[in-house]
Known about the structure:
Strand content: 5-15%
Number of helices: 36
Distance between the termini: 78 Å
Strand order of the largest sheet: 9-6-10-11-13-12
Structural class: alpha/beta
Amino acid sequence: MSAQLDQVTAQTANDPDAQETKEWLEALEAVLEKEGPDRAHYLMERLVDLARRRGAQIPFSANTAYVNTIPAHLEAHCPGNLEYEERLRSWMRWNAMAMVVKANRADGDLGGHLSSFASLANMLGIGFNHFWKAPTEEHGGDLLYIQGHSSPGVYARAFLEGRLSEEQLVNFRREVDGKGLSSYPHPKLMPDFWQFPTVSMGLGPLMAIYQARFLKYLHARSIAKTDGRKVWAFCGDGEMDEPESMGAIGMAAREKLDNLVIVVNCNLQRLDGPVRGNGKIIQELEADFRGAGWNVVKVIWGPGWDNLLAQDKEGILQRVMMETVDGEYQNYKAKDGAYVRKHFFGKHPKLLEMVANMSDDDIWRLTRGGHDPHKIYAAFKIAQEHKGQPTVLLVKTIKGFGMGKSGEARNTAHQTKKLDDEAIREMRDRFNIPIPDDKLAEIPFFKPSDDAPEIKYLHERRKALGGYLPQRRVKADEQLTVPGLDAFKAVLEPTAEGREISTTQSFVRIITALLRDPSLGQRLVPILVDESRTFGMEGLFRQIGIFNQQGQLYEPVDKDQVMYYREDKAGQILQEGINEAGGMSSWIAAATSYSTNNRVMIPFYTFYSMFGMQRIGDLAWAAGDMRARGFLMGGTAGRTTLNGEGLQHEDGHSHIMAATIPNCVPYDPTFGHELAVIVQDGLRRMVGEQEDVFYYITLMNENYAHPGLKAGQEEGILKGMYLLQEGAAHESDKAGQLRVQLIGSGTILRESIFAAELLKNDWNIAADIWSAPSLTLVAREGQDADRWNMVNPTKEQRVPYVTGLLQNTSGPIVATTDYMRTFAEQIRAFMPKGRTYKVLGTDGFGRSDSRAKLREFFEVNRYYVTVAALKALADEGKIAASVVEQAVAKYGINPNKPNPVTQ
């Protein structure tokens, strides 16, 4: 009989038939010994099934006891030199502390974090020394989403490895002069070091899940061999309250992402206080993940507890462990051994007897599982080897471990960045750092000689695992050929008479052409969020299939149709369902594949524009940080284009949000030829030249005629503005002295075109039409010129592009878009001197109606454009104000109509 059976048998004090229970337990023990745990599990499931069929109400519990998942006798022991590893870990703790404290003694406003790495140090050490592989010719490398606040510890390790200099550590959080280190993991700022930004809470685990699925996608499509790679994501227990952290765990289980490991650092604290003071965060997360279908491994208690649990014949210790809430556990580690004896073991007389021969110091040395290398190694090994499910490790640690009274397990631990001399002395003594008393005030970094056995060991371990981590590939080794503009001939030519199309249809034709391209076709990643039919993209279902690791186990209801719903193990489309955050996370995985997989992929994520930047703005910012390359396609864009859908769907501000991301290249094209020029140039920049930018392009579902590309327009399209049509006054106006300039983008450009006709026919005024596919790029170029002029006042002054376009024209300038006025206001500063500039836009909440009524409501239709132009001429004294009044009456404009912003 095993010791475990003895314990379970002893815990049946209130059993009405102890002998029968004993026989059942012995039978189960025999099955475990002779046939193994899988057979035992099968029999237990059958027993439960039978009981339920007979009417027994057996509740489901996703929780196990508050003890380690791996029994002590089944733990795999760490094969490394633990003496060296402990020493290295201590040096890293010291250097991380020195880095942060030095920075804040020099400049108290720089900030920094000590406590997160203090709780993670053992886990990161075991991972770096024994598990995480760097990319080599044989292995693509493991991908690490490292808990952002632990960055000082990662820098401290890289310093010992010789990858970072002391000067860089001294300049922690001082980046402007190019000698420092970023506060957190930022690929934008340290492009050859960090891979993933993780400090915007919740994004790390979400992106890691879709990254793991994308590795499966690449392997299934035979683009890259990824079957031996793992994605490891570290996050805090407080971070798990973010909806993004937990929102995709069901998908990870459904997709059987056994290449994914999430490690939750359960130090029981967030910034202000305990995560679950009145509960148990580990038990809560265990139920959530196991219920979702994950392999759950809990690492709660260090080795000192194993002997106590072995003595716990009656289960009293386990019961007290379960009944004690996290707020109490935090308090124990902020006090001392005597306090733990009284308030934890003192909960039951038999527990006090159990520790009677232990000193208070012995009790204090009873560690949590996250600080024991053997416990961590055993858990990591199970996670590394587990098949068929993603794994979550719930690892209990102490926030600020080793920081003593300054921060260990205290509510202020997260903000602790300034240690006094006594705290520094205590840390030196606790971790045996060989720094003399007379040098302590300097808080020197410690780094032994390169031939020290510990340093040699450090390099040997990384050499065995393929190289150093973290590291980031800046450019892919491969070079793909980008097709010329003529590949998109289908949308470059004018539309046939009577064959009006939308820019969305133009986009589908571009995608179709690219899928046929021999160089790029297989690298396209169309990403959709359940709106394919809205965008007319359902034809891709049958053509290239929807990726599903199971293939298609059913016959689709529309199988008899040409464009039926087809899922395939090697499908090319990523169909994310109603899930914009998931779609964006998949896009990020594909858009950074050049770096993570050494494979250039070209993602096109198409979505309702209203549910793009507004919905996933934080992920879009992270994409910029990660130097993502790809296309975001905002469909049904503009406040008045998506008629009938109403307030929640009508987008009048996505371009304003896109403009905030410096390496996002945004466009709002009106015509198919503009779209083709933009996409081809995007491919040239992102694929051909491997430039770290990504594109946001808005598409509309409104059908109209397209004039086709005219020679010489390409440059203006890409720069963001060009002369589409030169105006002429009415034939009866011989002098033609009055002229205006009309600027527009998207579908509202067409209202400017119609307004030019009204101005010509009704008021004898000529209007030049300017298409502005990117007012944001025009504004950026103007700001750049303006800045250069400011700091180079004696040199020849640069003329902003838009200024140069308009300075030789005449008349007031009116810009109209389907977006808030702020969008077109970006270029006001660059209007030629003395010129009137009026802006019309769609400020306010959207609503349901026809396009014509919506444009009337938001005052951006052809009549308002015409009136705005006339009013500008009147303000300049070119025409009488009464002419404007006539126009208002002629076009049925209600002068008492409320401002749409207030409606």
